[in-house]
Automatic annotation (TrEMBL):
Gene: hisF
Lineage start: Bacteria, Bacillati, Actinomycetota, Actinomycetes, Mycobacteriales
GO BP terms: L-histidine biosynthetic process
Pfam families linked to this entry: His_biosynth
Name of the molecule in the record: Imidazole glycerol phosphate synthase subunit HisF
Gene Ontology CC: cytoplasm
Enzyme class: lyase
The protein's assembly and partners: Heterodimer of HisH and HisF.
């Protein structure tokens, strides 16, 4: 059976506004998340991802409000990440209208939380977000050459990114959101080698993130093993449209939603 590829705009939300920068630096305002979400729904996006880049407890109430207002406006699945640390956090986001939650730092601190979340709410609700970078020269290498990072890619963990994706699958997550911190915001294309390595290690769907800059960048990510392709600034600032990305993949023989 051919799986139809999903196109997913990602909205980084900071204190109720969408922001975007390069490698999570020099953030600039990209608009109201509810308005952007409604626009993407109309334009044919298959899903949406919200990442709460403030992710503090003080920002949680703001994010819940944004999720509630967005869920009232759109008819496509919504994934919410950033600051999701406990089973109760998952509950709050799902009750607000999210369909899935994405977990990153909390899982690094205590991997068992992924199992607790997936058992309570089902694998289909839990996404493991992996912010991975090439291990810098001079640092202890990992088996694959990529490591998991925290703090927007600025802090290495020494955890092998490919092994971590496999561990997430073993713990019960339903998807891997694989974000290349080397490529993030650069618009030079997805990290195809890393995508292929993770694809070979897991059976759950893999979402490619980081590096989209042109319509021609998306098909190679799918050919490397992505089940979904995610981008942010190129959509927010009107450089690319959802429809033209889907048309370009279609032209390469890829089935899209």
């Amino acid at each position: 059976m051919t799986v139809a590829i999903r196109v997913i705009p990602c909205l980084d939300v900071d204190d109720g506004r969408v922001v975007k920068g390069v490698n999570f630096q020099n953030l600039r305002d990209a608009g109201d998340p509810v308005e952007l979400a409604a626009r993407y729904d109309t334009e044919g996006a298959d899903e949406l991802t919200f990442l709460d880049v403030t992710a503090s407890s003080s920002g949680r109430a703001t994010m819940i409000d944004v999720v509630k207002r967005t869920a009232d406006q759109i008819f496509i699945p919504l994934t919410v990440g950033g600051g999701i640390r406990t089973v109760d956090d998952v509950d709050a986001m799902l009750r607000a209208g999210a369909d899935k939650v994405s977990v990153n730092t909390a899982a690094i601190a205590r991997p068992e939380v992924l199992g607790e979340m997936s058992r309570r709410y089902g694998s289909q609700c839990i996404v493991l977000s992996v912010d991975a970078r090439t291990v810098p020269a001079g640092e202890q290498p990992t088996p694959s050459g990529w490591e998991v990072t925290t703090h927007g890619g600025r802090r290495g963990t020494g955890i092998d990114a490919v092994q971590w994706a496999r561990r997430g699958q073993e713990l019960g997550v339903g998807e891997i959101l694989l974000n290349s911190m080397d490529a993030d915001g650069t618009k030079r294309g997805f990290d195809l080698r890393m995508l292929a390595a993770v694809r070979a290690a897991v059976e759950v769907p893999v979402i490619a993130s980081g590096g989209a800059g042109a319509v021609a960048d998306f098909a190679p990510a799918v050919q490397a093993g992505a089940d979904a392709v995610l981008a942010a600034s190129v959509f927010h600032f009107g450089e690319l449209g959802i429809g033209e990305v889907k048309a370009a993949m279609n032209a390469e023989g890829i089935t899209v939603r």
